Amino acid sequence: MILNNKQLKVLKAIFEIPTPSNIVWAEIENLFRACGAEILPAKGSRLVVVLNQKRAVFHRPHPRKETDKGAVTSVKKFLIQAGVVPNSSGME
Question: Which residues of the chain have pLDDT under 50?
């Protein structure tokens, strides 16, 4: 998987310490797609994301477009389970 500079920047931001609370959700969805994830709509603002045979349910933030720290932490845990971390082969 090859990520463009913006996607790589979002991936690195997700793994920053302390956890950021200003990542735009649409950029996280774009990262998921670039990693090969299938994103399926669910009830309400929920999304089912399937990546490398791992499945997670996320809520799109509203009314704000930025993702809070708790959701970023959940995205980080999901990416780790799916084997997507910064500096993996093919990402830089």
Answer: 89-90, 92
